[in-house]
Design a protein that fits this description.
The complex is a heterodimer.
Chain A: E1 33-39, H1 45-48, E2 49-50, H2 55-61, H3 63-68, E3 72-73, E4 79-80, H4 85-92, E5 96-103, H5 111-120, H6 132-137, E6 147-149, E7 165-166, H7 177-186, H8 191-207, H9 218-228, E8 237-242, H10 251-273, E9 280-286, E10 306-311, E11 320-322, E12 343-344, H11 345-357, H12 361-368
Parallel strand pairs in A: 1-8, 1-9, 5-11, 5-12, 6-7, 6-8
Antiparallel strand pairs in A: 2-4, 3-4, 5-10, 9-10
Helix pairs in contact in A: 9-10, 11-12
Chain B: H1 3-12, H2 26-36, H3 50-75, H4 88-115, H5 119-131, H6 139-142, H7 145-153, H8 161-169, H9 172-177, H10 189-198, H11 207-216, H12 226-236, E1 239-241, H13 247-254, E2 262-264, E3 274-276, E4 279-281, H14 286-297, H15 300-314, H16 321-334, H17 338-347, H18 362-373, H19 384-390, H20 414-431, H21 437-444, H22 451-458, H23 463-471, H24 474-477
Antiparallel strand pairs in B: 1-2, 3-4
Helix pairs in contact in B: 1-2, 2-17, 3-4, 4-18, 8-14, 11-12, 15-16, 16-17, 18-20, 20-23, 22-23
Classes of the chains: A alpha/beta, B mainly alpha.
């Protein structure tokens, strides 16, 4: 059930004024690009976007709170983690907006169930076999609906009736073109394999990536992804996966690395996309947050609300943080341990993509998150 | 050879070999493997001991400590010649040695899979190793992951589930992977002492407790809640690893511990009675966690969870409820007797349907390809670890304690298929002068191969292309 306290993100994230096409969904291509970066493993929103203006933050986090104060102060309440320097620059340019104390409808603490819900957009684990990005593709003009996941296979979020491709760079030698042709024949009677094979060949020929390319580091991933999005046949809706967020132990150093890599990924997407950055929206989200207090091993355990981020040249009026801050006093925490969610991911995501593509927000939400009441 | 033989070899086993003789009764052949299975095959001889692995790791830790000291001293005004020397080359050398141990263990795993005659049992090793997954993206696990499979999983897959569970969950690789090695009872003797002396709190880490309940035993959304997780985490305090912990715990263990081995230290165990899923546990020390392990290992929710996973691995992504119910019943009636579970699987009609419902994982596909071609080496002398990483299923590196997914959509991807095409081409080129795809195809896919594949192989422009088409055929990509 939708609690009235949950904010609707509408108009406050800095996307340009929404334009709703009056008739139907079919429209000419818009050149709009969308990148969804999933943080698998439950990223700590309190470290990425630290509520340094909340006096209870220092009490709850101690040493880490002091470190957070060394980050970029975004407003009277929040500071961005010191490792996120490119993101801080984008915020100043009004090309970044953040949302805090946000969560999907999931209230347990299993990574796997929570990621399933974050991707499927369903109201319960394993409630749907397609994902909200996959359903987004059905709302877009054909030219904009070119989906690509940088992964060996398409993750749940991008599965759906519009077939998306997957791409992962390889260091293996190239294959004889005649064998490729014959495989098309061999798979002719097999619907699953022929669809996979057609997509694989198309993406491979587009990538033109050097054979030795690897995905070590956020900067390399961003550069390669930007390459896959170039030109008229480039991918328009892209999903990237990041990990290293499950910081049960010695969180400080590990998050420093993971947030630094994420920041480098954002920066290299911006650089790699060049002029196309002005048509691009990037969304970063995780399955749930982490405990407010540190555990006994310098880390944090599975929690509830976290932060989500938007980046892109399409944000003409960004530099905003959307949060109905729930507070960090023990009595204000969810189940006495976690940041309490006051905003739903489903609203945040559907509002953002609806505005980005100029779609009707209500219809978009109904399509992307049909179980969301 | 009949289609039943092909099903026994390809769906239950790791893939038919042309050299193998077709068994008279596929079911008897599978059952005989349960007795003939060797937990310590020759391919796995010569792996390093836990103490050796721990010694390499400790060298790394000491170096890091030196490095920190060096950074500290560099920040404070001192004479130049007093600055301790740091040697990044030495650190790299230690990490490389840990990695070399991992690569050797992964190669041994592959060799065992390719050469074994009891490949149904070997598939079960892989199944359980993935069920109790550790992941080498965490450095302390890197060199220990092989030992986890070889010494905690392999010896117990033909016994009781409870023994397998205890061995897998308390192996040093698991204790380190899921942070149990550092978890300390907040009211334990050590925590009280440290708090008094240094005003520093030591405490719980609930990671392992949660994943045991969610992934290894009861299953998510079943009978436990957050309180059960925390209570179980308190009961588990005490289990740690000698010589590989950090901070005050390491100094405490240095005097007591056996390097690289799991042990239970009462000094870090949270005292008191625990309550988990409605039962009270008033035991002291290790006996408390053992009692909880024993109860959850035979819980009906665990029976259901294991039955479902086993059916999903062997039969279909969405297994028939009748098959799951039959396995569940066997589990409950036998108290988790694993060979009885495997026999029920062999006798289940759902397992013998002609439809190839399972899309092979990259590991399955690579192993079955090498078995079909009767080769033991990978193309260009590549290591198993390297090839499997290229294919998207690096050995012992699922990146999550849930292990690798067992369903089609996670493996049937465009990029994943392209990797198989690349690797099949390489494998085929090397074997084409001694293997004829036209003869091999009916031998390994008897009754499963379709007309289009047979024709495509027959029309191939070269022996090598014919072999590649066989390995990439829909019938060989599935089982």
């Amino acid at each position: 059930m939708l609690n009235r306290r949950f904010f609707v993100a509408s108009g406050v994230l800095g996307l340009g004024a929404a334009v709703f096409p009056g008739v139907g969904w079919a429209a000419p291509g818009t050149n709009k690009k969308f990148v969804f970066i999933i943080q698998r493993g439950a990223a700590d929103g309190l470290a990425a976007l630290a509520p340094t203006g909340d006096p209870d933050f220092l009490r709850a986090r101690g040493e880490q709170a002091e470190e957070a104060a060394a980050g970029t102060k975004l407003d009277s309440m929040f500071a961005l983690h010191p490792a996120m320097t490119e993101s801080a620059k984008l915020f100043v340019l009004k090309q970044a907006s953040f949302a805090h104390a946000l969560a999907s409808g999931y209230r347990e603490r299993s990574h796997f169930d929570a990621q399933n819900i974050l991707e499927s957009g369903a109201d319960r684990p394993y409630g749907r076999e397609d994902g909200w990005l996959g359903r987004l593709l059905t709302l877009l003009p054909q030219d904009d609906a070119k989906g690509l996941a940088v992964a060996p296979a398409v993750p749940l979020a991008m599965r759906g009736p519009v077939s998306a491709n997957s791409y992962a760079p390889s260091r293996l030698p190239d294959v004889d073109p005649d064998l490729m042709t014959r495989l098309t024949g061999l798979y002719a009677e097999d619907a699953q394999l022929s669809a996979l094979w057609d997509g694989a060949q198309a993406t491979e020929s587009m990538a033109g990536a050097p054979a030795d390319q690897t995905l070590k580091g956020g900067a390399a991933l961003g550069q390669m992804t930007a390459g896959l999005m170039q030109g008229p046949n480039g991918a328009r809706v892209v999903m990237l996966e990041t990990n290293g967020w499950d910081t049960h132990f010695q969180q400080k150093g590990r998050l420093n690395g993971a947030l630094g890599q994420l920041d480098a990924l954002i920066g290299s997407l911006r650089d790699g996309l060049g002029a196309e950055w002005t048509n691009t929206l990037v969304m970063v989200a995780t399955e749930f947050g982490r405990t407010v207090a540190f555990n006994g091993t310098g880390g944090t355990d599975h929690g509830t609300a976290s932060a989500a981020m938007l980046f892109g040249g399409v944000l003409t009026n960004g530099g905003r943080i959307k949060s109905d801050w729930p507070g960090l006093k023990p009595s204000q925490l969810y189940e006495g341990r976690d940041l309490k969610p006051t905003m739903r991911f489903e609203l945040f995501a559907s509002e953002a993509v609806a505005q980005h593509y100029g779609l009707d927000p209500v219809k978009t939400r109904a399509k992307l998150f049909p179980d969301f009441a | 050879m009949t289609i039943e033989t092909a099903i026994a070899m390809n769906r239950f086993g790791l893939g038919a070999r042309p050299s193998g003789t077709a068994p008279d009764s596929p079911k008897d052949w599978l059952k005989s493997q349960l007795g003939q299975y060797n937990p310590e095959p020759a391919a796995l001889a010569g792996q390093p001991s836990r103490a050796d692995i721990a010694a390499s790791f400790r060298e790394y830790q000491l170096d890091r400590k030196d490095r920190r000291a060096a950074v500290k001293s560099a920040a404070s005004p001192r004479m130049e010649d007093e600055t301790p020397q740091i040697d990044p080359a030495k650190i790299e050398k230690v990490v490389n040695s840990l990695r070399a141990q991992y690569v050797a263990a992964a190669d041994a795993r592959m060799e065992s899979a390719i050469t074994t005659d009891t490949d149904f049992a070997e598939r079960l090793v892989h199944f359980w190793s993935n069920h109790f997954a550790v992941s080498v993206d965490k450095l302390p696990v890197l060199a220990l992951a092989g030992d986890h499979e070889f010494t905690a999983i392999r010896p117990h897959i033909m016994g009781k589930f409870s023994d397998l569970l205890f061995a897998a969950a308390t192996h040093p690789a698991m204790l380190l992977y899921l942070d149990q090695a550092q978890s300390i009872g907040p009211n334990s003797a050590l925590a009280v002492r440290v708090a008094a002396r240094r005003n520093r709190e030591l405490g719980l880490n609930e990671n392992l407790a949660r994943e045991i309940l969610e992934l290894h035993t009861l299953g998510v959304r079943t009978v436990y809640n957050q309180d059960d997780v925390t209570e179980f985490a308190r009961a588990l305090t005490g289990f740690t690893v000698g010589g590989m912990a950090k901070g005050p715990l390491q100094r405490f263990l240095a005097a007591n511990g056996k390097d690289g081995d799991s042990q239970f230290f009462p000094g870090i165990h949270e005292p008191g009675e625990r309550k988990v899923i409605g039962r009270r546990y008033s035991q002291q020390g290790e006996a408390q966690a053992r009692a909880i392990f024993s109860d959850i290992a035979t819980h009906p929710a665990t029976a259901r969870h294991i039955a479902t996973k086993l059916a999903q691995h062997f039969a279909a992504d969405v297994p028939s409820p009748s098959l799951v119910a039959r396995l569940e019943k066997t589990f409950l009636e036998s108290g988790g007797d694993l060979p009885k579970l495997y026999r029920t699987l062999i006798e289940s009609p759902e397992m013998w349907l002609p439809k190839q419902a399972k899309f092979k994982s990259p590991w399955d596909w690579a192993v079955s390809s090498l078995r079909a071609l009767n080769v033991r080496e990978l193309p260009n002398n590549r290591q198993s670890a390297n090839i499997m990483a290229q294919m998207g299923q690096p050995i012992w590196r699922p990146g999550s304690p849930a292990g690798y997914s067992d369903t089609t959509e996670n493996w049937a991807g465009g990029a994943a298929l392209m990797r198989r095409v690349e690797i099949a081409s390489q494998l085929a080129k090397r074997s084409a002068n001694r293997v004829d795809a036209r003869q091999l195809a009916p031998r390994i896919l008897s009754g499963q191969i379709g007309k289009l594949t047979t024709e495509s192989i027959a029309r191939a422009e070269s022996p090598s292309q014919g072999l590649a088409l066989l390995l990439l055929s829909p019938e060989f990509l599935r089982r």
